Amino acid sequence: MDDILNIFRALSDPTRLRIVLLLQKMELAVGELAQILDQSQPRISRHIRILDEAGLAERRKEGSWVFLKPGPAAELEILGRIFRSDKVAQSEQAKQDQAQLSLVRKARAEMAERYFAAHAKEWDAIRSLHLPEAEVESAMLALLQEAPLGKMLDIGTGTGRMIELFGAAAQSVVAIDNSPEMLRLARAKLLESEIASGSDIVQKTELKQGDFNHLPLSNGAVDSVILHQVLHYAQHPEAVLLEVSRVLKAGGIVLIADFAAHDREELRTDHAHARLGFSDDSMKHWLTASKLELVQIRTLDGGALTVKIWVATKPAIPSLHSDSDRQASPAETLKRASA
Q1: What is the DSSP letter of 9?
Q2: At 84, phi and psi to the nearest 5?
Q3: Separation between Cα atoms, residue 206 and residue 250, nearest integer Å
Q4: What is the DSSP string of 87-125?
Q5: Angle, nearest 10°, between helix axes 41-53 and 2-11?
Q6: Of 1, 77, 183, 212, which has fewest CB within 10 angstroms of its CB?
Q7: What is the largest CA-CA distance in the chain?
Q8: pLDDT for position 320
Q9: Phi/psi of residue 62, each to 5°?
Q10: How far is CA 305 from CA 114, 124, 232, in A?
Q11: pTM metric for this prediction
């Protein structure tokens, strides 16, 4: 009873109700809420504390920013039907807030455009060394087309491209990057993608700041993991793969897309690559040490750099049920497809 009373007390304030309605649409930073609601950040923060205590909002720190999303209160699912009703959505206040929310979306898109413009030459220099990215993505899609991705983890999400590529096939996505700037970029790009495609990709994606050496997830939390052009930044790739194995469920699948071993030293000096690609032997050794089984290797030659795709699985725990009684794991599905 006390929980219900706290929820209704929290929603009795117009500003807090508006915040909850806005968070139903998208995750927002405290500063963005202050802009939309035309109130000071300290005042918004006080409202957020009350909503947080009632389980209606959840705070997450990302660098110097604090982002808000809907909280864990189970009652939110029931209240959501009211929040989405025409009577609420077509109210004058809701329309005004929606107009301000559109300005926040626009500001994020402009930030993304500035970032891409500033880094275009740098990225083009690396892309010119290997075959077109579209061919790499096509190969990745082909390798995972038969695998149920379930809850997918995208490590080093960067611009969020892997979410755009695989998110529709996943039940949900957790995307991790160590850079708050890259997470804000991914957030902006995913909004654009959702609007263009009419998908629900933003709603089912959780963006988190985190280090691939210490993934902010519990053991066995995800069904599939993607590391696209990320592992070469790791000083100790074997430690990253141990973390991947820890958070991956038994029967889960891992896809690693990166460079084959090469001697382009400028990638280390100019682009902070800790490793100049990987050999198949090294990758197999690290995967085996992480209790992951390498099941497929794809080599994509083109230009000065060769792109490799390694697919591994985490062996499933033997089931007490007959094969006809249970659903195939991602690993089993992949092995059948590649047989």
Answers
A1: H
A2: -90, 0
A3: 22
A4: HHHTSHHHHHHHHHHHHHHHHHHHHHHHHHHHHHHHHHH
A5: 160
A6: 1
A7: 66
A8: 47
A9: -140, 95
A10: 28, 14, 13
A11: 0.76
Query: Tokens 């709603």 label which residue?
Result: 203
Q: What angle do CA 260, 262, 266 make, to 5 degrees?
A: 125
**Span 87-108, pLDDT tens digits:** 888 889 989 999 999 998 888 8
What percent helix, strand, coil does the chain show, rounded to 5?
50, 20, 30
Asked if the model's pLDDT at residue 184 lies above 60, the reply is yes
Q: What are 100-154's pLDDT values in tens digits?
A: 999 988 888 787 778 767 776 676 667 677 888 899 999 999 999 989 999 999 9
Query: How far is C-alpha 308 from the geometric centre of its chain's CA atoms?
Result: 22
CB distance 207 to 187 below 8 Å: yes
Is the Cβ–Cβ distance between 188 and 112 less than 8 Å?
yes
Secondary structure E strands in the chain: 28-29, 57-62, 65-70, 151-155, 172-177, 205-209, 222-228, 248-259, 293-300, 307-313
Cα-Cα-Cα-Cα torsion 331, 337, 338, 339, nearest 10 degrees, comes to 100
Q: How far is the C-alpha of 118 from the C-alpha of 265, rounded, in Å? A: 23
The amino acid at 339: A
Structure tokens at 154: 């995208």
Looking at the DSSP bridge assignments, the partners of residue 298 are 309
* CB-based burial label for 8 (10 Å; 0-12, 13-18, 19+): exposed
Taking the CB of residue 191, how many other CB atoms lie within 10 A of it?
20
How many other C-beta atoms lie within 10 A of the C-beta of residue 277? 20
Q: Which of 189, 116, 125 is nearest to 154 (CA)?
A: 189
Lowest mean pLDDT among 186-195, 209-218, 319-328: 319-328
